Prior knowledge:
Elements: E1 4-11, E2 24-32, E3 42-46, H1 52-57, H2 60-69, E4 72-76, H3 95-98, H4 103-120, E5 128-133, H5 135-146, E6 153-157, H6 172-184, H7 186-204, H8 208-215, H9 225-241, E7 248-249, E8 253-254, H10 258-267, H11 275-288, H12 310-316, H13 337-348, H14 356-361, H15 366-373, E9 377-382, E10 400-405, H16 423-449
Parallel strand pairs: 3-4, 3-5, 5-6, 6-9, 9-10
Antiparallel strand pairs: 1-2, 2-4, 7-8
Helix pairs in contact: 4-5, 6-7, 6-9, 7-8, 7-10, 7-11, 9-11, 10-11
Amino acid sequence: xxxxxxxxxxxxxxxxxxxxxxxxxxxxxxxxxxxxxxxxxxxxxxxxxxxxxxxxxxxxxxxxxxxxxxxxxxxxxxxxxxxxxxxxxxxxxxxxxxxxxxxxxxxxxxxxxxxxxxxxxxxxxxxxxxxxxxxxxxxxxxxxxxxxxxxxxxxxxxxxxxxxxxxxxxxxxxxxxxxxxxxxxxxxxxxxxxxxxxxxxxxxxxxxxxxxxxxxxxxxxxxxxxxxxxxxxxxxxxxxxxxxxxxxxxxxxxxxxxxxxxxxxxxxxxxxxxxxxxxxxxxxxxxxxxxxxxxxxxxxxxxxxxxxxxxxxxxxxxxxxxxxxxxxxxxxxxxxxxxxxxxxxxxxxxxxxxxxxxxxxxxxxxxxxxxxxxxxxxxxxxxxxxxxxxxxxxxxxxxxxxxxxxxxxxxxxxxxxxxxxxxxxxxxxxxxxxxxxxxxxxxxxxxxxx
Length: 450
């Protein structure tokens, strides 16, 4: 079932009253009113880093539950992503324009758009529930905290709101990726762990990059070992994130349980095969499961989902330091903050603000703060998702709930239901629906009693 595309005249800057603040840009949103009845709930997806159609296509859960709730569905595109470019083609030109790209402006965008939409529909009494996955899940949770008068509740899936200011260990993310592969096959884990040294050794030889280009079936000769390094690194990391128990096409087309499939490829090689040939074959599952690629473009890969603006956000407010421990299948590494600052200054001419997110939204001792202050938030996490280690993994109060599944992956609960869904996923969604129904029932009860 399709969504209708709309555009909202959004204000550039919600927080100052300079003349430039009133500049208007067209913010894209998708809407589906097929099941909606006047006065019924409005379910809003708080768009994250990428084209909004991408998230709508991978959030079938809302379409699945819309009939039950008679809900209006709205997917709002995040400013500076997709078509929602405040300065058109010049939006990424400099820090002068990119300075308007941050989470606080995005949240205000959503609040203004929702208010206007309800007025235009003459349905200002309709309760709003916000939904988001990953960064969008962070935004959904923060929206409920910042705009409780606009949204009665939030479902934040795979939202790593504790990945800041050393609230959780810096090595958590890559330790979790590594554990996923180790759980699938210890040999697979050891082969990947040993492949990095083999990659370095080959590239250091005379003619090594030519041989590397041949091994990796590149469309053009490699100019740097780092391209192959990053290509492998991304394949293993993203596959761990989307280790779904069913076929899916979120980041790439992949089979069910792709981590296990990768390890089957590695373990299936004959004795004596190089580690590099094994990990290349495994990574090819991620990049070429559809078997349509004749060669691989390791350098200057196109931005298929429009996520380019995230580099700016990571250099300004979304400072999430990551390291690799000795237990990881990736080479041990630390986080050099001075080097990070230099890179951001060189690229954008701005200094990161590593403590801003926890200053603006909180995070430290979150269980004590939200227990007294917040309400009506579901934090759902699957422990196979490496981002889960930076999420809320336990109940904070009776209405701020941590739903944790042992085998879940990156916002798997948002995917469309299928005949292959395991029982634990069916149960997770059932609980989410029950909680959301409770919020809505309570809201309508309060309205009637006024």
